[in-house]
Design a protein that fits this description.
Layout (H helix, E strand, L loop, with lengths): L8 H8 L6 E5 L13 H9 L6 E5 L5 H7 L5 E5 L2 H5 L3 H7 L7 H16 E4 L13 E2 L2 E2 L1 E5 L3 H18 L27 H6 L4 H12 L7 E3 L6 E4 L4 E3 L3
Parallel strand pairs: 1-2, 2-3
Antiparallel strand pairs: 4-7, 5-6, 8-9, 9-10
Helix pairs in contact: 1-2, 3-5, 6-7, 7-9
């Protein structure tokens, strides 16, 4: 609901099955609360228990480790979890959930994920309803091409790849290596102090400075245009210029 005094989900979920829904994702926060406090998993489980068999409930909120996933399913009312920010901060969380282990991934492995992200962005993929391979020629149904570009290696493709890479790095830098933590898993509402990693690269990947994210992007995408600036959508007040000078926007 809008706030804690106006919870609505537990009233709506029992009706969703009759409206044709077979599953629903429930995020355990109110609109007013946003991310100021941890997700309310007690409410998620209560709402899920009210659904009966007509509509399955998928829980969402603060799933940052395999332990969170396992705990969410203990009651039997929540069928699975929906991972959102946790996957932006640590994309390997799905391996951790599958294998039920904490992965102390090293900085080189994390940079490999960045490299693969860029490759995926610059690729031109061909997909069709008949599941043609990547090497198949593009097909067309009338005026509708079945070639999908993510996002290509021309100037526009590089620009889009860089922008999405920087948006991702604005989340990924929040990861604290498992080997440096005394308590696992990392919590989404933690705001750890700056730390020195076990390598220069690990320290760089933890930098909150947008100028460092831009520098990382240049390793794979080349120099940025003159006057380039990046404004993270979820943190619009911080930006960095091409010259690596962090700044603040008004508003």
């Amino acid at each position: 609901g809008f706030d804690e005094r106006h919870d609505l989900a537990h009233k709506l979920i029992p009706q969703l099955g009759s409206w044709g829904a077979s599953a629903v994702v429930l995020h355990g926060r109110t609109r007013k609360q946003r991310y100021s406090r941890p997700a309310d998993w007690d409410y998620i489980r209560m709402a899920a228990s009210s659904s009966g068999e007509s509509c399955q409930v998928i829980g969402n909120g603060d799933v940052y480790g395999w332990q969170d996933h396992v705990k969410a399913l203990e009651s039997g009312d929540v069928v699975t979890t929906y991972v959102a920010r946790g996957a932006l901060v640590k994309p390997w969380i799905f391996t951790e959930i599958k294998e039920r282990r904490d992965w102390d991934i090293n900085a080189g492995e994390r940079l490999d994920i960045v490299r693969q992200f860029v490759r995926n962005g610059l690729e031109v993929r061909c997909r069709s309803r008949n599941e043609h391979s990547r090497n198949s020629p593009p097909l067309s149904l009338g005026r509708r091409s079945l070639t999908r570009q993510h996002w290509g290696s021309d100037l526009k493709g590089v620009e889009n790849t860089r922008r999405f890479l920087l948006e991702w790095l604005s989340f990924a830098h929040r990861y604290v290596p498992a080997g440096l933590l005394e308590v696992l898993p990392q919590r989404s509402n933690w705001r750890p102090s700056a730390f020195v990693g076990r390598s220069d690269l690990e320290t760089l990947l933890a930098s909150p400075d947008p100028a460092d994210w831009i520098m990382i992007s240049t390793w794979f995408l080349g120099p940025t245009p003159n006057g380039y600036k990046f404004h993270a959508k979820h943190q619009a007040k911080s930006h960095a210029s091409r010259n690596g000078e962090p700044g603040m926007e008004n508003g």
